[in-house]
Amino acid sequence: KIKSLQESRNLFLRNIMHELKTPISKGKLITDLMDDAKNQERLQRIFSRFEYLLGEFTKIEQVTSNALVVNKNSFRVVDILDNSFDILLIESSDVDLEINANLEIDVDYELMSTAFKNLIDNALKYGIGRTKIRVEEDAIVFESNGEALENSSFEMAFNRAFEDSSKGLGLGLYITHHIVKRHGFTLNYTWIDGVNRFRIECRS
């Protein structure tokens, strides 16, 4: 029964993605032809948001259907972090980066970059003050100041306890959890003295 429900959910997601892809593409094309600059910019942001969510739905469908292909090679964590910064269009100087070990891990470069990106993006959007990233002997730690999260389970998508309802749907941490899990690592969350801490343990 559980397997049947899982297959039904994946089919539902696949159909939604298929139905939304064409109108989003057409909407972006029409928006580019608009003369009203103010409304054009607003609509471009809206359609870009739709496109981003469509990409997140694609990742969810992949991780929940076990269709996520993991191509592992050995990479330095600092190089994966640099790629995550590039994806977010930020510099390493925009965060407090502390390198305590020359950690190398066997991972899928693009997938782990996405996982790091989601944790950094979450901290930058919802944290107070500067985001801190620390590379340790066998772990990567992402810290930001803020209120404690109400729910510490990563198993459910659309978990608004993790991401503010006006800004996110809780997809990023859900996807990150499954990417980390597929690599045989663990994602742990703690809140101590006003600091939200996400720790990826790299011991497989």
UniProtKB/TrEMBL annotation:
Its EC number is 2.7.13.3. It is an enzyme of class 2 (transferase). It catalyses: ATP + protein L-histidine = ADP + protein N-phospho-L-histidine. It is a multi-pass membrane protein. It holds the Pfam family HATPase_c. InterPro entries: HATPase_C_sf (IPR036890), HATPase_dom (IPR003594), His_kinase_dom (IPR005467), HisK_dim/P_dom (IPR003661), HisK_dim/P_sf (IPR036097), HssS/ArlS-like (IPR050398). Keywords: Kinase, Membrane, Phosphoprotein, Transferase, Transmembrane, Transmembrane helix. GO terms for molecular function: phosphorelay sensor kinase activity. The keyword Kinase applies. SMART domains: HATPase_c. Residues 15-204 form the Histidine kinase domain. It is found in: Membrane. GO terms for cellular component: membrane. This is histidine kinase.
